[in-house]
Write a structure and sequence with these properties.
single chain; 150 residues; Arc Repressor Mutant, subunit A; three-stranded antiparallel β-sheet; zinc; repressor
């Protein structure tokens, strides 16, 4: 479910991450927090046509560096962005959760409710990131498919 925040909370978030409170940054935060799926830059561009492509790219890049959002790839290899947990920090993400790609609607979901297995690598390997993907049908698409069968 999408997290509900108001503009004051977004302003506090930007201040906490030492970022200027600009209207485009606040709009991007508001849009991303209103969704329960990850979203791509092209999708954001289509609904935020008053923010140019370069500015939007810079905002997303800055938010990712600051630990506000994290990048996840969909089944086509397109970068999508999702809101981070509060324990993410600048240049150090804790987004070790399942990323679910729906094969019907193409949405990407962050599934935080699962307990992730502990990752044990052979000697000499030092993991810096961990990503786990699954694909199939999301609840909405599963329900649509079941309705068509009945």
């Amino acid at each position: 479910m999408a997290q509900v925040k108001n503009n004051y909370q977004f302003e506090d978030m930007l201040q906490k991450h030492n970022l200027k409170k600009t209207a485009p940054r606040l709009r991007v935060l508001s849009m991303m927090y209103s969704k329960n799926t990850a979203t791509s830059q092209p999708d954001l561009e289509s609904v935020m046509n008053d923010i140019d492509r370069v500015t939007l790219y810079r905002i997303l890049n800055t938010f990712e560096e600051k630990g506000i959002i994290h990048k996840v790839f969909d089944l086509n290899g397109t970068a999508n962005y999702a809101v981070c947990h509060s324990d993410c920090k600048e240049n150090h993400h804790h987004d070790e959760h399942l990323h679910f790609n729906c094969t019907a609607c193409k949405n990407v979901y962050c599934i935080n409710e699962l307990n992730m297995p502990r990752l044990t690598l052979p000697a000499g390997f030092e993991p810096q990131a961990f990503t786990l993907y699954a694909s199939g049908l999301c609840p909405k698409c599963s329900k649509k498919g079941a309705a068509r069968v009945n």
